[in-house]
Amino acid sequence: MKYISTRGNVNKIGFIDTVLMGLATDGGLLVPEQIPQLSEEKLQELSKLSYQELAFEIISYYVDGEIPENELKELIQQSYGTFRSSEVTPVVKLKDDMYVLELFHGPTFAFKDVALQFLGNLYSYIAKKTGETINILGATSGDTGASAIEGVRGKEGIRICILHPHGRVSKVQELQMTTVHDESVLNLAIEGTFDDGQRIIKEIFADLEFKNKYHLRAINSINFARILAQTVYYFYAYFQVAKEKDINSLNFSVPTGNFGDIFAGYLAKKMGLPVGKLIVATNENNILERFIKEGVYQPGEFHSTYSPSMDIQVASNFERYLYYLLGESSSATSALMDQFKSEGKITVNEEQLRQVQADFAAHGVQGEECLNTIGKYYEDTKYLLDPHTSCGVAAYEACNGQDEVCVTLSTAHPAKFNESIEKCDIEQNYPEEIKALFDKPQYLEVVEASNEEICRQLEKHFRSSLADVK
Ligand SMILES: N[C@@H](CCOP(=O)(O)O)C(=O)O
């Protein structure tokens, strides 16, 4: 298994180099040269496995022997041993035709833990094996930050810097990131939006001299390892639903911001999992909904919403999908990404739009609809949705067809978004870990959202790594 760039200007590399490269050096995203195809018999076999066993099987296709089997198994056990549910990502039935895939049983109560517990351990493994210096740079709209920090804190030889948009994440999200008192962790609250942070880190990664000097590594879903670990739970959910229902295919409704989570579902489908519709649920920041409905990918006005983790205009993983939409043509992908840079939009032709609509359905959820859905499901089922999951459920209601069965991805625990839940007049019980955050001091720096300022901060934080250069 080798990896190539969506823009075609990176020599083929293996799995560990892919993890270390993060953003491809030509500015594109790394993808597997060929996607493994699983037969029906293989799927049958996989359906009998525990989450950890399944993760091992799926991940092995992509690691392709670069990590010895027993060590990969150990990495996976370590990563999911921190989850509060023995099933890791349990499936809960809410309606006859709708299940919720609970992805929030990890240490920071968000779906990001599923991949970032694994990636944190993987980075630590690579650091130990190869002596590579791991200085992580990431951007968050709320959930990735805490999850990434939790995934690597206390691990020898790893430092991390996370950018979050100042005042635009929920209080719990902010506390989860900023109450970690560890000299290897730097939290920068930027005066701007998540898109500013994501643009800045991508520009810094593209400055290869700076990236190499400070050994910068990616933790966001630009890193293919993130997508890979997230693919596992689509398989797991499918197998759990298939155990109790006779299904030929299964829809998934996915709260979507950076397009990484839903792209993992797209990858599972390409591997042969019988996925029906992949439903993109957005909030008022609906660039993806507009693209799927109209074929034009163009950022709109930024909105602060009840689901802050999805307050994203430019979705990182969109380029990975574009590459497949364009028949795996790196020259066509580069041309469209160049056009996006110069004109600020991408328009696909009618035939391509038909393909997009065969791959995805979409629904943009407005604030009121998000809160009403939380209220309605709480009243009807006593199940409390967080505002992101609520967007997913509202999108299932809008897009799931008759006789179709859907799994909605529950991306976070409602306790992370008390501001929104309180608006629904619902009182919730907070997990002890979250309650405890409110008594802790915070460590963060509020900084201007400029490349110069962020580089200055990184030089300070990662300075000692210069001595470690191999
Ligand atoms: N929604 C994310 C934004 C970053 O996305 P990622 O999947 O690329 O890490 C967040 O909560 O931070």
TrEMBL record:
Pathway connected to this protein: Amino-acid biosynthesis; L-threonine biosynthesis; L-threonine from L-aspartate: step 5/5
UniProt EC number: 4.2.3.1
InterPro entries (alphabetical): Ser/Thr_deHydtase_PyrdxlP-BS, Thr_synth_N, Thr_synth_N_sf, Thr_synthase-like, Threonine_Synthase, TrpB-like_PALP, TrpB-like_PALP_sf
Record Gene3D superfamilies: 3.40.50.1100, Threonine synthase, N-terminal domain
Keywords: Amino-acid biosynthesis, Lyase, Pyridoxal phosphate, Threonine biosynthesis
Cofactor: pyridoxal 5'-phosphate
Ranges where the Threonine synthase N-terminal domain occurs: 2-80
Keyword RNA-binding: no
Annotated catalysed reactions: O-phospho-L-homoserine + H2O = L-threonine + phosphate
NCBIfam families in the record: thrC
Stored PANTHER family: THREONINE SYNTHASE FAMILY MEMBER, THREONINE SYNTHASE-LIKE 2
Functional note: Catalyzes the gamma-elimination of phosphate from L-phosphohomoserine and the beta-addition of water to produce L-threonine.
UniProt-recorded name of the protein: Threonine synthase
Lineage: Bacteria, Bacillati, Bacillota, Bacilli, Bacillales
